[in-house]
Amino acid sequence: MEHRDDIGAKLGMWVFIFTEILLFGGLFLVYAIMRNNYSKEFHEAAHHLNAFIGTINTVVLLLSSATVAMSITAVQKGNNKLAVILLFATLVCAAVFMVNKYFEWGHKIHIGLYPGSDLMMTLSHGQVMFFSLYYFMTGLHMFHLVVGGIILTIVMIKVNSGAINTGKYVLLENGGLYWHLVDLIWIFLFPLLYLIT
Amino acid sequence: MGASNFTEGVDLAFKVIFGISLFFLVGITTVMLYFVVRYNRKRHPHAVQIKDNNVLEITWITIPLILVLLMFYYGYVAFSPQRIVPNGAIPITVIGKMWTWTFEYEGGKQSPILVVPLNKAVKLNLHSDDVIHSLYIPAFRIKEDVVPGKNNYMWFIAQQPGEYDILCTVYCGLRHSYMETKTRVVSEAEYAAWLKALPEKSNEPEGLVILKKNACTGCHSIDGTKIVSNSFKGLYGKSKKVMTNGSERTVTVDDEYIKTSIFDPDKDVVSGYQKGIMKPYKGIVTDDEVVKIIDYLKSIK
Amino acid sequence: MTEEKTHHPEPSYLVDTGKYKGLMAWLTSTDHKRIGLMYMYAMMIFFSVGVILGVVMRIELFFPGEQIYGPQMYNGLFTLHGIIMIFTVVIPGLAAVFGNFSMPIMIGAKDVAFPRLNLFSFYLYVLGAAIALSSQFMGNGPPDTGWTFYAPYSIQTHTNVVAAVFGAFVLGFSSILTGLNFIVTMHRMRAPGMTFFKMPLFPWSLYATAWIQVLATPIVGITLLMIIAERWLRIGFFDPALGGDPVLYQHLFWIYSHPAVYIMILPAMGVITEIIPTFAQRRVYGYKAIAISSLAIASVGYFVWAHHMYTSGMSTTARWVFSLLTFLVAVPSAIKVFNWVTTMYKGSISMRPPFLFALGFIFLFMIGGMTGLSLGALATNVHVHDTAYVVAHFHYIVFGGVGFAFFAAIYYWYPKMYGRMYNFKMANWSFVFLFSGFNLLYFPQFIIGIMGMPRRYFDYLPQFTLGQQLSFFGAVLLVIGFVIMLITLFSKKGEKAPDNPWGGRTFEWGVPSPPPVENFEVMPELAENEGPYDYK
Amino acid sequence: MHNDAVHITPYRTHLWVLVTLLALTFVTITVTWIDLSALTVLIAMVIASVKGYIVLTYFMHLKYESSLFRVFVFMVLAIYVLVILFTFSDYLFR
Ligand code: HEA
Ligand code: HEA
Ligand code: CUA
Ligand SMILES: [Cu+2]
Fold first, then answer.
1. Can you give the pLDDT at residue C84?
2. In order of start, what are the domains of chain A with their CATH numbers?
3. B204-232: per-residue pLDDT in tens?
4. Does the beta-carbon distance from C317 to D82 stay under 8 Å?
5. What single string gives the DSSP state of each residue in A3-27?
6. pLDDT 10s digits, B169-194
7. How far apart are CA C247 and CA C240, in angstroms?
8. Exposed, middle or buried by CB within 10 Å (0-12, 13-18, 19+), for B240?
């Protein structure tokens, strides 16, 4: 007999989210220290980032978070069809985010602004540090986005097949929690990297 | 009187901490052994259940708390002067490099050992270009890391003439355990005379200066002795067996070979050595400097 | 239902009942008891490798100067020795083996909350260890950084650091998942009537441990990833040549690795807290104080990391702040020691091997802990930091403490695990050798440390020769003791063990030895006025 | 277990939350146009924290979970903040 404990499952997910928060926490700590050491250079380097793309991506992520949250409501109300649509919308948002990132990174790499490049070596230490952090943080965030996307795809298939339903939807909740985490991290990344110029 | 002005304070802190610890160690062990014997099942077949007692718990929280704060205090008091350098301390720059110490005195004179005058405050400015080292003088009870990219420092007053060991305590690679030297404590007059006799900063050939600056001499001697690798003496023009891509071949040491040896040492590995011991110096040693190194190597053929 | 069960007692977990038989049945089992045993076997293999490396180091150190191999090899040896011992033996250690084997039974659960995740962590553990070991044979040869991977050396050296670092990362991930599993298990699956303050103290210590695993390990995870990024991508967080800060690396590393020492010791303390009342037939003295002190150690222990960095050039403020915090964390440890000793008072003590090892633990832990205090004080630390004194301190705690607790735990739960007893006389002899060898090996290190013998030294000055040679003989005695112990435990089968050979009170002694697959035939319960340690 | 009362958040709430979050995003952007030097960082972080709080409470449903979850989240964040503070006890006093 498979024993079932939804609260336990959710507790497990939350604990996992804590570890993720601290994983990024380590990076934010590095950011804080480096910003303290090189505040002027960070200021200058941030100008090179495209705040417009950043803003679009923020909006897209917030939107996707809302659709995931609403898909839970839909399942709770027994409306699986709507839930699938909402989840699909989330995945579309994720794709838009990735495409934007592709262009953003692509452009930088094209003009030779990436770790270890010759252009990078001509910049001041503080600026190099900013871009290193930029690539590392957004890269890791993107990795989480992809993982979240895969989880939500599985969840969507299960909602569609009815394996997730009004009586049993903790998997959807947990997938949602993970997705919100990805959003939560971006909420802090966005101003730190793009805005505080 | 201790060897340095810090020795006594540090030793006192040790005594306080060890004293308290020993008291508890002996006391607790004795009590424990007594219980084990006295309440052995043969002697004491029926255990007596005892109720918890909060007063007792609070007592043995409070007393250790006070004692550890006392330990903290002694540690702090003996330590805090170590970070406050008195005015007029003699500045000496310490350069830690894999795996040698160099001491640079006022006026830029350099020496491989540390010589300091008796009863005078000395400030050591710690400097490294490669990895972290740590300067440790056990007799003086002081130690501070030599961190690249950072200006760390330490100071002391030597109080007894003599020679003391200097060691490197942060692991810094292959010959970490050989990164040692001496400090010599002499009278003020002797110190002045010694400093005067120290040769002015290098009229050494440029190539040698570069070799020393990059600590090549930590592995390659210039007098024929073998340290980690072959000596530079007589190297130029020799023919050598090297491994290239897994097969052995014989080469003559010429300009080109030396250049690859410096920039990409793993390409031609001298037979009998492992790969990866010497790191590539591409980007650290410039092309110009390589030419000067080659010139120098030619001169010590 | 119940009637049927009394007639056909359920088969023990050692009997294959599932789809597979033999080895496959073990490798695919999600039974917490089997996973615990698998951890134990894997760990013993790694441990033996680590022990051999340690002895090989001691042989080279017998005389000053180069004896049988060169410095490069020595540097590789202590690095691998440290990595194996820390990341694959003592950090998962007692939590992975006995946390898995005993904890669910002790709280009255059929298994952990996520059995499949549990098996997955085990495989991650094996994978991580394999990656770490593979660093020896691939690339440019064994890493030579020390287990601390200090930047910038770890970025510059040409040895195979990436594999070792990545192995440690995977092992960390395994540790996180185990911690997560235990937290949920202890929150959701306790027996009816077992409130948190009626839970036995070994589970309590695991609970505190699990939170550290979950909250501290990610920090070292990300730090290790940064090291890899630096080596591959020239991202220079810690490389001063690119504007990075090597001291920041030390902060990040120790933010995890200091709490990690409590990941090691808390379960060990938990085991001791189980053994003493059982053999003294006495209720644990100061139950609440011990439970809360576990949490106190875990939480305060999170904030003392920079005591490993007093000489790194930190600000003076940070130095005294961290020194003060270090001293605060010593107090809850003291509370435990006092309560253990008081538990023996007026007990009825039987000197069985587990109890003997528990006494050994208390003694060695006190020495380790008290020398920790002289390391925590600023002035004294500056003198002995990075010397053999530190080596002695942590072997006393990590090996004298965690190692001896491990032996105690094996001797304690062995009858439950295998349903067999072992030879007490042999076990006592193994104690004699281990204990005396241990002190002979590490006590001289304190003395030469104070005299100024730095650690990680392939070669040393002549004044340290005597100490180093005594240590060698100690290592020999230890190995003899270790071999005796292995023979005692694994050579011949002893007589059949009763369900409750020691007269313990916690739930695991109420089930058959070895326990059935789902642990209980009748789910246990704690009555209103019943505690976990109610001896008559 | 969950005394059966499953809390269903209405769609409307989610939409309002979204609107609030978007609004806050634009507030941050406009604020950072005005140069307040060090204050900008502070304001941006405060706004981000408010957004984080909203996401945690509504999207992540903390408001309706048992208080244990809230205690844990608080504990984790508190530990993290302390870690930052203690690390800065080095960097700010060098
Ligand atoms: C299980 C592992 C473990 C544990 C539990 C501890 C426990 C402690 N450790 Fe240790 N430590 C290590 C493992 C551990 N350590 C390791 C592996 C290293 C080296 C890492 C490396 O660099 O490679 C290290 C290094 C280390 C250092 C850095 C040394 C240096 O490099 O300069 C310091 C400094 O403060 C320290 C302090 C302490 C203290 C104060 C405790 C305290 O928690 C101890 C508390 C216990 C007691 C105090 C004893 C019991 C109390 C009584 C019997 C009551 C009587 C006592 C009083 C009145 C106070 N340790
Ligand atoms: C668990 C941790 C652990 C254990 C058990 C040991 C065991 C041993 N260690 Fe140590 N050691 C470390 C952890 C450990 N070590 C660490 C972390 C370092 C620092 C590395 C670095 O600097 O980076 C270190 C460093 C270190 C050095 C210092 C290197 C230097 O600084 O120059 C030396 C020197 O000789 C040494 C020797 C030994 C010896 C001889 C043994 C043993 O071989 C002694 C013999 C032991 C036995 C014969 C058996 C005991 C059995 C058990 C404990 C468990 C049984 C378990 C099961 C049955 C499952 N070790
Ligand atoms: Cu220089 Cu160790
Ligand atoms: Cu520590």
1. 93
2. 6-195 (1.20.120.80)
3. 778 888 887 777 887 888 877 777 788 88
4. no
5. ---HHHHHHHHHHHHHHHHHHHHHH
6. 999 988 899 999 999 999 999 999 99
7. 10
8. middle
Find out whether the beta carbon of C58 lies less than 6 Å from any atom of ligand 2: yes
C-beta pairs of D48-55 under 8 Å, 24+ apart in sequence: D48/A187, D48/A188, D48/A190, D48/A191, D50/D24, D51/A187, D51/D21, D51/D24, D51/D25, D52/A184, D52/A187, D52/A188, D54/D17, D54/D20, D54/D21, D54/D24, D55/A65, D55/A180, D55/A183, D55/A184, D55/A187, D55/D21
Contacts of C202 (CB under 8 A, 6+ apart): C98, C102, C103, C106, C267, C270, C271, C273, C274
- Among residues B257, B146, B180, the alpha carbon closest in space to that of C461 is found at B180
Convert the pLDDT of each residue in B74-102 to its tens digit.
999 999 999 999 999 999 999 998 888 99
Residue B197 forms contact with C (CB below 8 Å): no
How many beta carbons lie within 10 A of that of residue B106, not counting itself?
Answer: 10
Decide if pLDDT at C446 tops 70.
Answer: yes
DSSP C303: G
Q: Encode burial over C491-503: b for 16+ CB neighbours within 10 A, e otherwise.
A: eeebeebeebbbe
Instruction: Provide the shortest C-alpha distance from residue C512 to chain B (in Å).
Output: 26
Residue with tokens 């810090």: B6
- Among C272, C310, C327, C375, which is best to mutate for testing ligand 1, by the most ligand atoms less than 8 A from CB? C375
Q: Going by C-beta distance under 8 Å and a sequence separation of 6 or more, which residues neighbour residue B122?
A: B89, B90, B92, B116, B155, B156, B157, B158
Answer yes or no: is the C-beta of B64 below 6 A from any ligand 1 atom.
Answer: yes
Reply yes or no on whether the pLDDT at D2 is more than 50.
no
Q: Give the fold, CATH level 3, of C24-505.
A: Cytochrome C Oxidase; Chain A (1.20.210)
Q: Residue D18 contacts by C-beta under 8 Å, 6 or more apart in sequence?
A: A62, A63, A65, A66
**What is the DSSP code (8-state) at residue B4?**
B
Q: Would you list the domain boundaries of chain D?
A: 11-92
Partners of residue C458 in chain B, C-beta under 8 Å: 176-177
Tokens of B133: 């080292």
Backbone angles phi, psi at B269, to 5 degrees: -95, 125
Position D87 scores a pLDDT of 93
Interface membership of A185 toward C (CB under 8 Å): no
Q: Which amino acid is at B107?
A: G
Pairing verdict, β B239-244 and B268-270: antiparallel
Ligand 3 atom nearest to B98, measured from its CA: 1
Instruction: Please give the distance, rounded to the nearest whole angstrom, from the Cα atom of residue B201 to the centre of ligand 2.
Output: 47
Helices (H) and strands (E) in chain B, counts: 6, 13
Cα-to-centroid distance, C368 and ligand 3 (Å): 27
As a whole number of Å, the CA-based R_g of chain A is 19
Tokens 């993970």 locate to A178
Of residues A33, A68, A69, nearest to D91 (C-beta): A33
Q: Which of C355, C366, C341, C365 is nearest to C408 (CA)?
A: C355
The secondary structure element, H or E, covering residue D11 is helix D11-33
Residue C374 one-letter amino acid: S
Q: How far apart are CA A69 and CA A184, in angstroms?
A: 14
Residues of D in CB contact (< 8 Å) with C are: 68, 76, 79, 82-83, 86-87, 89-94
Q: What is the pLDDT of residues A168-188, one digit of tens each?
A: 888 999 999 999 999 999 999
